[in-house]
Task: inverse folding
């Protein structure tokens, strides 16, 4: 794949159907109105020299290299900032232009170190290229005068260097930071000769607001901003197109290698999800894949107190199969099960659920989405008919009102947040519903119109009150409701009841009624209104109810079925959507079809030649309960660290300790592996071959950059276990697994590796009706036919503050770390987040005698841990906040068994706690051993 | 659910009783018969057979711990669909 240097047309494409015809060097070209001359020329095959222009940024017109002559016009205008006009005749190469360009280049080079042969960007430097293009043959000015060659290099960022001596002040980095990323951390300070790129107020990069997304590095035409890995290893010489393994945005990347060594990850311009942008995790934090902590050989042990013993694959696989069969022989078919992972490919997940259903003979398969977005599955299926977000990410560019509920996109989904911020800067209105003042509430050029700072656990009361306003103030889109929906009248009667009014719930939610009314009116009347939500919606005792409440609101206002609107879950992990699609839930076969459906079971029974149990199996929390009561004794865990990530750690570890066989398939010996009897080493995303499906239902290829370091692909291991248990299961290649998925699952019927290679990606449903996929769902009809209004009474969580536990703890994550940190803790990202801290309001801290940075105990009714306090008024009084990236903190030691009523998704977001100063020798007991930063 | 003198609840009851109660309280807007049917339907759709069996096994002995709507749902489950052990 020749993607090392992607084509750069100089300026962004202009939308629109109207075209104009111009002539560039005698060649006619037809382009959309408003297109720059530079882009028109590039489209006609003529590259005009440029330095400050790149097609990911608006034209700037500063470098004066792209000058052209236009018949009938005076002077030599910049082609990047001059739009085409009908009949225009442009000349890009004339003696006058040549001389002007050489003069400009001569000035640039006179203040640039001439170390090309030893420069890290040698071969990938636009300044070098342009010198050749313009025919520069001499530099008459020498180095005797003032120059910038002695400026000091900034090496503070762990991933890239800033060498101002090589800077040509083209502002591409500054513009990328603003236009693409939306952080505005960079500026040009000084004037004239003193002009220079400056992070914040002449800070070091590491001390500035820079979020290390890499957009500036990507935009830099010289070696001024350069990846340290390129400096250390040299310029890559081949590239493999693949998909990021972090969050649910699912960015496309070019893995750029030098031989077999990965040098850097570069965001792919044609990636449907990210369109050339990235965040600090996907762009830079890939070192975990080759970290020495990776366990590469299978291991077994009889008891969890025994030392591990390395064995060969055959021994490990047979050991698993024999022990699983033995457990079933003694305790029943349903005594074993498996958990699939959202970090694994669709193909890897599919074979695990197939192993459970066909080889284990039960439905005891669940996925880590149980603890994050299972309420999305339930809620959207009940109302819309399928478990998926309604839009593609591009849709946000058409939104007029954006409502962010229980999500923190700038930290959790940063590349999508950049799209969202761009639209907000263009004038879209913003409603944030969150107990915490997240960055989106107020950041450069962004200010939320409404921040509904509700009390944790009162989401449903808020969304009901918004719907109450819509219904009682006559803001319902009756045309949409009448033609597209059902059960509206009963719902409208319910929602209009006085107990759902903003005034009635204000005391419960803490949201002033006037603010809530104003937000509801804005959502209903502000044009295209889109809802984006995260785990602050789902991880509650009424998570599913809230999802249905949002769906009700969107339907009532007609905000479904076109670009710019919709109800959109921001998925936590890269393949949450896919792992759910693949039949990982114990009640559903692939494609969200209930196991009790005879026709669906028959499809799989015919193909698999095994009967499928028509009743649901155990969910993850049910597995733990069943393990404690002795009816569940064997568990296969694919790439999930349940001992760290699941709530009520004491209960989880008691369940794991009670089991006879715990099999962990993972990259590292994680917390769960401490309770395992078999460890099967897994593969990183750089070794995988398959597909991920992101939060917008986009199926992307994951292509192997290197062979499995373990000697086996994960799907092969699973197939071998099934075979050893007596069920033959084999595939020549993952493409055949996808072929089986397509053959059995209508929404994937048109998906194949060949199509993905051809189109880049597709969004399901992809079938005969939509052969190239479906960016927007429910356009003419809902998947279930009519959208269904569901009544959503607010029922307070039983978890509430008490005299003993007077504060409410809520949890989340931050930009630089990812989930339980197994990956990011093994990268230089620890430079930004070495430990989890407890954010506590200054008032709550003061009454407890807690100062900023003090070590405190955090206790709930189920456990106690300790961590450092950070005073912050982002949280309201009475609410504290922490992250769960470090096992040493063990935030889930304190979270409880409470869960969403419909799906058992844990109620991570509401735990009654007490916080106190930690004194030496206090009772804070932490189960996890001290875990230092793991950077190699 | 029981509560201690400090107000926090304890979890001495079985998971099946607790989960059934958590479902039951979500249907305050429905008449009792409809609520019981909705709860029973939900349990049929999402619970493993052994969980249903355990609920039915405990429902008489621990009826006071069950929300009345959950108890009514459990009776529907017992009357309408005999469950297998599923093991």
Result:
């Amino acid at each position: 794949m020749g993607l090392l240097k992607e084509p750069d047309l100089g300026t962004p494409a202009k939308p629109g159907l109207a075209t104009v015809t111009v002539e560039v060097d005698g060649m006619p070209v037809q382009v959309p109105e408003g297109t720059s001359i530079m882009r028109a020329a590039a489209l006609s095959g003529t590259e005009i020299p440029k330095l400050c222009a790149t097609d990911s940024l608006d034209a700037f017109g500063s470098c004066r290299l792209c000058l052209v002559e236009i018949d009938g016009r005076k002077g030599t205008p910049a082609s990047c900032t001059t739009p085409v006009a009908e009949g225009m005749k442009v000349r890009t190469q004339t003696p006058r232009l040549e001389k002007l360009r050489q003069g400009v280049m001569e000035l640039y080079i006179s203040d640039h170190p001439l170390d090309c042969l030893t420069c890290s960007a040698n071969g990938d430097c636009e300044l070098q290229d342009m010198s050749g293009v313009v025919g520069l043959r001499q530099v008459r000015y020498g180095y005797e005068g003032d120059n910038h060659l002695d400026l000091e290099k900034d090496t503070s960022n762990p991933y890239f260097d800033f060498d101002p001596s090589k800077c040509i002040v083209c502002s591409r980095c500054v513009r990328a930071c603003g236009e693409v990323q939306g952080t505005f951390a960079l500026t040009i300070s000084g004037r004239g000769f003193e002009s220079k790129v400056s992070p914040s107020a002449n800070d070091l990069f590491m001390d500035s607001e820079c979020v290390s997304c890499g957009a500036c590095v990507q935009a830099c035409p010289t070696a001024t901003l350069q990846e340290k890995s390129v400096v250390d290893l040299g310029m890559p010489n081949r590239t493999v197109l693949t998909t990021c393994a972090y969050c649910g945005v699912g960015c496309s990347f070019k893995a750029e290698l030098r031989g077999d060594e990965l040098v850097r990850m570069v965001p792919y311009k044609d990636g449907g999800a990210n369109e050339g942008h990235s965040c600090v995790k996907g762009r830079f934090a890939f070192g975990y894949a080759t970290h020495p902590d990776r366990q590469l050989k299978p291991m077994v042990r009889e008891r969890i107190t025994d030392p591990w013993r390395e064995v060969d694959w055959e021994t490990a696989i047979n050991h698993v199969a024999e022990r699983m069969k033995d457990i079933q022989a003694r305790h029943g078919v349903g005594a074993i099960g498996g958990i699939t992972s959202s970090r694994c490919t669709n193909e890897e997940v599919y074979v695990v659920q197939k192993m459970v259903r066909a080889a284990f003979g039960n439905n005891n398969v669940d996925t880590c989405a149980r603890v994050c977005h299972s309420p999305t599955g339930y809620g959207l299926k009940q109302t819309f008919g399928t478990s998926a977000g309604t839009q593609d990410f591009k849709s946000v560019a058409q939104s007029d009102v954006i409502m962010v509920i229980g999500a923190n996109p700038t930290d959790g989904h940063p590349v999508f947040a950049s799209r969202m911020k761009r639209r907000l800067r263009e004038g879209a209105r913003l409603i944030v519903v969150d107990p915490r003042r997240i960055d989106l509430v107020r950041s450069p050029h962004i200010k939320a119109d409404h921040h509904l700072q509700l009390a944790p656990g009162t989401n449903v009361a808020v969304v009901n009150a918004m719907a109450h306003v819509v219904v009682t103030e006559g803001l319902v889109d009756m045309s949409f409701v009448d033609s597209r929906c059902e059960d509206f009248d009963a719902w409208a009667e319910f929602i209009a009841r006085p107990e759902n009014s903003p005034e009635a719930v204000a005391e419960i939610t803490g949201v002033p009624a006037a603010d809530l009314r104003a937000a509801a009116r804005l959502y209903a009347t502000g044009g295209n209104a889109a809802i984006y939500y995260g785990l602050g919606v789902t991880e509650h005792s009424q998570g599913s109810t809230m999802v249905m409440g949002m769906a009700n609101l969107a339907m009532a206002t007609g905000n479904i079925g076109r670009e710019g609107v919709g109800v959109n879950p921001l998925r936590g992990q890269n393949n949450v959507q896919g792992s759910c699609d693949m039949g990982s839930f114990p009640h559903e076969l692939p494609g969200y079809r209930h196991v009790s459906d005879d026709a669906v079971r028959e499809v799989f029974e015919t193909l698999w030649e095994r009967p499928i149990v028509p009743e649901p199996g155990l969910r993850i929390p049910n597995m733990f309960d069943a393990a404690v009561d002795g009816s569940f004794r064997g568990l296969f865990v694919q790439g999930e660290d349940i001992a760290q990530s699941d709530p009520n750690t004491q209960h989880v570890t008691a369940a794991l300790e009670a089991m006879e066989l715990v099999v962990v398939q993972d990259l590292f010996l994680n917390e769960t592996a401490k309770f395992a009897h078999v460890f099967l080493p897994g593969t990183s995303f750089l070794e995988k071959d398959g597909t991920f499906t992101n939060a917008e239902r986009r199926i992307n290829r994951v292509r192997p950059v290197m062979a499995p370091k373990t000697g086996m692909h994960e799907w092969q291991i699973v197939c071998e276990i099934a075979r050893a248990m007596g069920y033959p299961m084999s595939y020549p290649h993952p493409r055949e697994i996808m072929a089986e998925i397509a053959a059995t699952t209508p929404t994937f019927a048109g998906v194949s590796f060949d199509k993905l290679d051809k189109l880049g990606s597709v969004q399901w449903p992809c079938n005969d009706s939509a052969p190239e996929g479906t960016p927007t769902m429910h356009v003419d009809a809902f998947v279930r036919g009519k959208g269904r209004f569901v009544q959503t009474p607010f029922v307070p969580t039983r978890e509430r503050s008490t005299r003993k536990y007077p504060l409410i703890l809520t949890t989340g994550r931050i930009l630089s770390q990812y989930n339980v940190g197994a990956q990011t803790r093994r990268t230089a990202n620890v430079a930004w987040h070495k430990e989890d801290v407890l954010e506590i309001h200054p008032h709550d801290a003061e009454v407890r005698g807690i100062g900023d940075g003090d070590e405190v105990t955090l206790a709930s009714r189920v456990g106690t841990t300790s961590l450092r306090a950070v005073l912050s008024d982002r949280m309201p009084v009475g609410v504290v906040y922490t992250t769960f990236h470090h096992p040493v903190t063990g935030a889930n030691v304190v979270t409880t068994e409470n869960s969403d009523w419909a799906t058992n998704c844990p109620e991570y977001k509401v735990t009654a706690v007490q916080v106190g100063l930690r004194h030496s020798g206090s009772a804070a007991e932490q189960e996890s051993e001290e875990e230092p930063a793991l950077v190699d | 659910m029981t509560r201690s003198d400090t107000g926090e609840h304890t979890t001495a009851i079985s998971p099946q009783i607790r989960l059934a109660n958590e479902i039951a309280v979500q249907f305050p807007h429905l008449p009792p018969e409809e609520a019981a049917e909705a709860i029973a339907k939900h349990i049929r759709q999402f619970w493993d057979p052994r969980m249903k069996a355990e609920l039915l096994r405990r429902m008489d002995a621990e009826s006071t711990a069950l929300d009345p709507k959950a108890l009514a749902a459990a009776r529907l489950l017992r009357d309408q669909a005999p469950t297998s052990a599923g093991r």
